[in-house]
Amino acid sequence: MRKGIGVSPGVAVGTAYCIREIFVNPHTRRLEQRQVLPELTRYDDARRRTAADLRTMYQKISRQVGPEAGAIFLAHETILNDPALSANIRKLIVEQRMSAQAALRQQLDEYSTLFARTKDAYLKERLSDVRDVFVRLSGHLSEVLQATGEALSGPLIVVADELLPSHVMTLGDRDVSGVVTQTGGQTSHAAILARGRGIPAVSGVVGILKQVKTGDVIIVDGREGHVIVDPDPETESAYRKLEREFFLLKDELAENRDLPAVTADGEQIELLANINSTADAAAAVAMGASGVGLYRTEYLFLTHADVPDEEEQLAAYREVIAASPNRHATIRTLDLGGDKTVPYLGIAREANPFLGWRSIRLSFENPEFFATQIRAILRAAATETTSDQTAEKTQVRMMFPMITTLEEIRRVRGMVRRAQKQLEEQGIVYGDVPLGLMLEVPAAAVCIRSLLEVVDFVSIGSNDLIQYLMAADRDNPKVSHLCQPLSPAVLHVLADVIGACNEADKPVSLCGEMAGSPRAFVLLLGMGLSTFSMSPAFVPTIKDLARHVTRAQAQAILKHVLGLKTTAHVMRYMAKQIAEIAPNLKLLDTA
After folding, report:
1. Is 483 one of the annotated active-site residues of the chain?
2. Of 18, 483, 501, 511, which one is the catalytic site residue?
3. First and final CA of the chain: distance in angstroms?
4. Domain membership flag for residue 258
5. Which end of the chain is more exposed for a tag (fewer CB within 10 A), N or C?
6. Residue 95 lies in domain
7. β strands within 456-503, DSSP E
C-alpha cells in the first residue's frame, strides 16, 4: 500500500494503464522484421503531420499575436527537420527494432543528458523546445497506437507523473475508473479532470511508476489517499465491495437531479458546475446543476491543434452555452501560465511561475489576442433566433482571472468597451454581458470593498486564493498540507469577502474545489453564501447534503469553527458534524 493525497472521493479497482513521461504507453518490445518498414512509414507520416501543424501554427500566431510569437514555431520546424534527428530515430527502428514511440523516448533521454551537461543557460532553455517537438510527434504516433494497440480488458486506472489535458484527449473514450499521479495535489489537472468525471483519484504518490506496470491490478481509494498494487484476493474482494457501495451511492444521489436545490428549511440555493468543455456542460445537465459557474476557456487552447481564431472560439462558446443548463454560463477569460502554458505566447521559465507572468497579466501583454477572445464571448452571448423564429435566451457572464488591483479591473472594462465599439462599427450583434472578477489574490480580498464598486459580480477562486494566502504551492507534496480549505486563516478571509459582497448586494459565488466538499459547504452556507460552483459529479452530493441542513444550523456550526485555532481541530469537528447531518455521505466525505 502506498499513501498519497486523496483528491477525488470513492473507490475503484481496475487494470493499470501507465503514462510514462510525455509518451502514452510506448511499446517497448522488439519489432518483428516484417514490422520495421511499416513502423518507418508510420514515423514518416507522424513527422509530416507534425510539420504541417507547425506551419499552420506559425501562420496563425503570426497573424493573431505577431511575427515574434510565431517565430518559435519556425524554430520548432528547424528542430523537426534536423537530419540527425530523423537519422537517429530511423536507425533505432531498423537496427534495434524499436517502435517509433520507444525510439523517440530514447532520443529525448539522450538529448536531456546532453543538455544537462551544458552550463549555457540559453542552451538549457532550448530543451523545452525540443520536448515540445517530441510531444507533437508522440501525439501523432499515439493516435495510431490507440487505434491499433492491444486493448486492455476491464476498467482502467490511469497512472502517470501528471495527467495533462493532452493525455486526456489521447485516452479518448476509454473506460477510465480511477487516476493515480506521482505529482500534484487537490487542484492539479489530474484532480480537476478526475472530479469532473466523478472518478476516484489519488495524487502525490512519489515513485509509483517504478512500482507498477501496465496490466497490473491496482486499487485506488480516493477517500483515504491509498493506492494498492497487485492486492491479495482478500484485500481485492474487500475493496470491490466498497467500490460497489460507491457506485450504488452515486446512482442513488443522481436520482435527485430534478429536485430543487434547497436547504432543510426550504431556502433556495444555486448549484452550478465548473466545466472545461461541451461534454462537461452536458454532464452538468445530467447531474442536475442549474447552470455553469465557471467555464475554463484555457482548455480550448490547451487541447486545440493550433490557436483558435475568433470564429473558432465563437463556435466553441456557442456550443458550450447551448449545452449548459438553462443556457446559463459564466465564461472565464484565459487563465494561462503557471502549470498551463502554450508556446505561442512565449512563456519562458520563471523562478516562481504562479507568482509571475500569468492569467490577466499575460492577457494585458497580448492585447489583440485578448481582444479576440473578448469579442468572441460578447458575440456568443447574443440571444439566438432558431429556425422556427423563437428566441433562445442566454444568460452569459464574463469573468477575469487573477485580478489584483482596482486599476486592473478598470483596464479590463476599458478593453471590453473598445471591443463593443468595434462590433457596433462592424454591425455585428453582441450580448449584454455582466463583468466580474475571480477573487484569487489576497490583495484583492483585502481591498474587496473598493473592487465591488466597479464589478457586477464576484466569484471566489478558492484554489489559488488558498495557495497564495498560505504561501505554499498547492501541487508540491512537500508543502501541499498547508493548502487546506479548512484552515482558520482561509475561513476568516472567506467570511469577510462573502460578508462584504452581501452587504454591497453584489452576487457572489465560490467556484473552487471547496464548493464540492461537504465539510466546506456547510461552513460556506453559514457565511451567507448561496451560490456554489463545483465539478458536475459533486452536484448530487451537495444537493443531498443541503436538504439535511438549515442556514441557522450552518451559522451555529460556523460560529463554533471560527473559534477554533488549528486546521486539525476544524477538520475533526467538521467530520463529526457531517457524520451526524448526513451519515449516508460517508463514502464521499474527504478532508
Report:
1. no
2. 511
3. 20
4. no
5. N
6. 28-148
7. 457-460
Please report, for the domain that includes residue 212, its CATH number.
3.50.30.10
Domain boundary among the residues 99, 133, 148 is at 148
pLDDT of residue 502: 98
Tell me which residue of 159, 136, 110, 128 sits closest to 49, measured CA to CA.
136
* Angle subtended at Cα 544 by Cα 543 and Cα 547, rounded to the nearest 5 degrees: 90
CB contact at 8 A, 509 and 462: no
Whether 171 has a pLDDT exceeding 80, the answer reads no
List the grid coordinates of 196.
469532473
User: 585 or 381: which carries more pLDDT confidence?
Assistant: 381
- Please indicate, yes or no, if residue 60 is contained in any of the structural domains: yes
- Return the DSSP state at 402: T
Instruction: Evaluate if residue 432 carries a pLDDT over 50.
Output: yes
Backbone angles phi, psi at 199, to 5 degrees: -115, 145
Indicate yes or no: pTM above 0.85. no
Q: Is residue 18 annotated as a catalytic residue, yes or no? A: no
Shared-domain flag, residues 289 and 329: yes
Do 217 and 318 reside in the same domain of the chain? no
Q: What CA–CA distance (Å, rounded) separates 124 from 110?
A: 14
Cβ burial of 1 (10 Å; 0-12, 13-18, 19+) is: exposed
530 found inside a domain: yes
For the chain, state the CA radius of gyration. 25
Residue 256 domain-assigned (yes or no): no
The mean per-residue pLDDT over the stretch 75-88 comes to 88
**Length of the chain as a residue count:** 591
The pairing of beta strand 2-3 with beta strand 23-24: unpaired
Q: How many domains does the chain have?
A: 3
Pair 181, 316 in one domain: no
Q: What is the mean pLDDT of the chain?
A: 85
> Rounded CA gap, 324 and 321, in Å?
5
Instruction: Answer whether 89's CB lies under 8 Å from 100's CB.
Output: yes
Active-site annotation holder among 189, 226, 328, 548? 189
Contacts of residue 83, defined as CB under 8 A and 6 or more positions apart, other chains included, come to none
Tens-place pLDDT, residues 203-261: 889 889 888 988 899 999 988 889 999 999 999 999 999 999 888 888 888 888 889 99
Could you report the per-residue pLDDT of 548-575, keeping only the tens digit for each?
A: 999 999 999 999 999 999 999 999 999 9
Question: For residue 393, is pLDDT > 80?
Answer: no
Calpha distance 357→338 (Å, rounded): 8
Alpha carbons 88 and 102: distance in angstroms, whole number: 12
Examine the domain organization and report whether 547 and 439 are in the same domain. Answer: yes
What pLDDT, on a 0 to 100 scale, did the predictor assign at position 149?
34
Same domain, 14 and 36: no
